[in-house]
């Protein structure tokens, strides 16, 4: 079966600095796959490269077997690849409801009301805050809104970049539970970049470890969770 996402020998540069050095990653339809690694390892660069900004200098990115390596970002989004970026980047002056409108797929506006209700069921806090401006929400609420806005596009592939960053453990648990639920009930395919290796590996079917712009290890989520090398490097000596 052809993977929904294939990243093949991708190299990405910022000027003369190589940020990704021959990265190979695959995501099958219906999987949750995570990419863990230290800060500055190149995880977010890979996410942005998949979305076409920056573009890979060498290598190939395929989505549903189609080459998207040189495609502009807006065309990639039209293929129903949605991203919840690092740092949330919601529209702070718009209300929660208006942010969800901005995320809605133009091709699927007939489902808009149904999709909004689904987001409010998934994240009840957003329903309570629907007329509030995005910029006045707490960090956790903004992260929920960022994910919900991405989901409004009815994505075939959801890219999540550091969804737990700076959030309280209880909020993180709720967000990861929502992702798990969508995967189990609707078969949502998720590629997740995360510094919280423990939560990410528990959630994921498969995982990759990135060090200095290179994938150094791959395996099942639970398998890497039990790996002594991974535990020592990313799980604070296995205290979790």
From TrEMBL:
A Gene Ontology molecular function term of the record: ATP binding
ABC transporter domain residues: 5-237
Any single GO BP term: L-amino acid transport
Domain of life: Bacteria
Keywords per UniProt: Amino-acid transport, ATP-binding, Nucleotide-binding, Transport
Database matches in CDD domains: ABC_TM1139_LivF_branched
InterPro entries with a match to the protein in the record: AAA+_ATPase, ABC_branched_ATPase_LivF/BraG, ABC_transporter-like_ATP-bd, ABC_transporter-like_CS, BCAA_Transport_ATP-bd_LivF, P-loop_NTPase
Gene3D superfamilies given in the database record: P-loop containing nucleotide triphosphate hydrolases
Family according to the record: Belongs to the ABC transporter superfamily.
Protein name: ABC transporter ATP-binding protein
The organism of origin for this protein: Xaviernesmea oryzae
